[in-house]
Amino acid sequence: MAAKLYNDVLLSSLEYYCDDYAQLYLISLVNKEFNRAASSMLYYRVVLSPPTSLLHRLNLMDTGAITSPSNLPSATLPQYASLVAELEVSGFLSPRAPPRNTLHAILSDALRKFTSIRCVKFVPATFHEDVFIDSLKLLPNFGSSLRELVLNSSCTSSEEKVSLLTDIKGLYRLALYSPGRAVLQTLPDWLKKNADTLTELHLLDNCGSVTPGVLNSFLPHVQETLRAFSLGLSYSITDEDVFTFLSQLPNLEHLRLRNYWQMKAPTTKPGLSKLKSFTADYAGSSFTTCSEVARFCKWIRRTIAASPIQTLRIAAEGVGDDDRDHYVSPAYPAFDSLIDHLSKKHATTLRHLDIKTAFVGLDAFKQLLESCNRLESFHLTAGKNAITRLSESLPNHTPNLHTVIFDIRNVKRRKVKIQDEEVAELMQRGPHLRRLIVNEIHWEGSWKFDSSTGGTKFGAEQVVVPVPPWKKKKNALHP
Description:
Layout: H1 2-14, H2 21-27, H3 32-42, E1 45-48, H4 54-58, H5 72-75, H6 78-81, E2 86-92, H7 103-113, E3 119-126, H8 133-138, E4 148-151, H9 153-156, H10 159-165, E5 173-177, H11 181-193, E6 200-206, H12 212-222, E7 228-233, H13 239-246, E8 254-258, E9 277-283, H14 290-304, E10 311-317, H15 336-345, E11 352-359, H16 362-371, E12 377-382, H17 386-393, E13 403-408, H18 420-429, E14 435-438, E15 441-450, E16 455-463
Parallel strand pairs: 1-2, 2-3, 3-4, 4-5, 5-6, 6-7, 7-8, 8-9, 9-10, 10-11, 11-12, 12-13, 13-14
Antiparallel strand pairs: 14-15, 15-16
Helix pairs in contact: 1-3, 2-3, 10-11, 11-12, 15-16, 16-17
């Protein structure tokens, strides 16, 4: 009993370092107990994601050996293989064909050893068309454990590959990137085989082959059980088609849609009475006028009008986390009409607002803070005075706020200067506020022992967010 309690406490303590692989490795060297606990986190998720490399493309002697930072080779060892729950293969794989490229054999051999696998993601950017054939043949054998499957065209581009997929049963979540006709034609039968378990269906990125008829073919198999649905960009479908389809999913709780400009506004309202989370995608450079922003905000309002929405996200395609140009350029038109709607219609339910690419005016920001008292976190773009306005509102509003993220526009980045003492003072005004991020600079607040007084003192300090090895940037000339 004591040993079990010790292990539970140790695992809970190590959760703080769940994304810090370097620190987890050091912890694993302490003793056997620490090694067992740290290894369960180090190998829970195994990722192979080679970065783009000019040398990689020019090397004709490349055999597909794993040279990029990855925990895949060590994960296949007997003491770690049973710990693996997620396998992700992404990034830029070698396009060379077997047998020169042995990656297909490496992946299939690894998959055989991962007997507890729950999630498989095969979504590489470049690849040879046969790299996953052997692995796909093995997936139906994991029916007792495999619950999540994420694939792109590397696994769905031909009838041969699709025929291997349709034997997979027991899935809870299925995500297909850029699904083509080959997989869409057999998808209804595949959904039927998973009708008793499937609760999430996500069709992402280029969904040009998805038509109203394709959506209607899903309904008999997912109508009552589907809890989450996503649909990427498809000019074959209008908002009217999408809303008609959604109105027939009474238990939908999570939704993601890609917006594009349409001349005719839909007459149907989806009426999603159980929807808790909505993500709206749009082309990042498409909104430059007030009328375009107003139309987009109206589309969001129509989608969530009847929903007890708790989480709202806006994602702009083509605007990545490393794109810093928009911090010094004039802001796009404000999304104040959307904030007004949230403050009036969803103030009692809204908890998380992630609209980082949407500019919010000062008055609308004040309205948000004063109305949405259950707000726990937000990420938005605002002017330089937004932090001051937040400080003024904290003592009386948003008592549950714990995370605040600002992207400051209309001012040069070097002029946005915040001291640790100012951040600590701001956090103390909010009873639960412990994380502040401004222009990608992270602060975290905590109570610490003060040796000078013998008591505790609250302080805030800048922190560096750990990055997994496979996400660290490398020189493009090196593999």
